[in-house]
């Protein structure tokens, strides 16, 4: 539903070119990106083998990660949403920074009859180039023509 509203505002902004629609488009984009989608992540199981320098004491630790979720809002204290939408002729380009997003899991480590629970959180850090490969870009383009209202982008 929110995506459909976003596409409709995008269509209006592209077809009219009025500044008021551009402001509404940016407000809609900000509202859309301020909600945490909490996307579920797959459970992960793996093990790590550790040995001493001589190699005669191998130990294998089993790790089990459960109930993972990717949080699409900033996990740090900052409320800043990094992203923007720009319009060029009949195209809207929106770019969302994933910096500050995080994934969290409930974990368990075990070795033989011993086990312990832990929580893990991994946060996306800043990438040192102008555009991070982890950023998300959305391109919406209306077909060129005389009646752009009738040629709304397909969802």
Write the layout of secondary structure elements.
Blueprint: H1 2-16, H2 19-33, E1 39-41, E2 44-50, E3 59-71, E4 83-88, E5 91-96, E6 102-111, E7 114-123, E8 136-141
Antiparallel strand pairs: 1-3, 2-3, 3-6, 4-5, 5-8, 6-7
Q: How is this structure best described in words?
A:
- This is Putative secreted protein.
- Keywords: Signal.
- Residues 1-17 form the signal peptide.
- The protein is of the alpha+beta class and 155 residues long.
- The protein has one domain (2-141).
- The chain has two helices and eight strands.
- The protein has helices at residues 2-16, 19-33, and strands at 39-41, 44-50, 59-71, 83-88, 91-96, 102-111, 114-123, 136-141.
- Strands 1, 2, 3, 6 and 7 form a five-stranded antiparallel beta sheet that branches. A three-stranded antiparallel beta sheet has the order 4-5-8, with helices on one face.
- Helix 1 (2-16) runs antiparallel to helix 2 (19-33).
- The chain is elongated and about 70 Å long.
Radius of gyration: 23 Å
Share of helix among residues? 10-25%
Content of β-strand: 35-45%
Query: Which structural class best describes the helix and strand composition?
Result: alpha+beta
Q: Judging from the principal axes of the Cα atoms, what is the shape?
A: elongated
Question: What is the count of β-strands?
Answer: 8
């Amino acid at each position: 539903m929110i995506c459909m509203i976003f596409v409709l505002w995008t269509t209006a902004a592209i077809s009219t070119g009025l500044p008021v629609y551009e402001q509404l488009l940016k407000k809609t984009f900000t509202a859309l990106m301020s909600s945490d989608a909490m996307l579920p992540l797959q459970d992960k199981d793996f093990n790590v083998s550790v040995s001493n320098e001589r190699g005669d004491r191998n130990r294998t630790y089993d790790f089990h990660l459960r109930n993972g979720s990717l949080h699409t809002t900033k996990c740090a204290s900052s409320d800043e949403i990094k992203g923007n939408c720009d319009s060029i002729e009949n195209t809207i380009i929106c770019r969302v920074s994933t910096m500050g997003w995080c994934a969290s899991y409930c974990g368990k480590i075990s070795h033989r009859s011993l086990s312990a629970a832990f929580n893990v959180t991994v946060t996306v850090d800043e990438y040192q180039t102008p555009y991070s490969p982890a950023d998300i870009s959305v391109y919406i383009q209306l077909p060129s023509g005389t009646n752009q209202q009738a040629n709304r982008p397909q969802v």
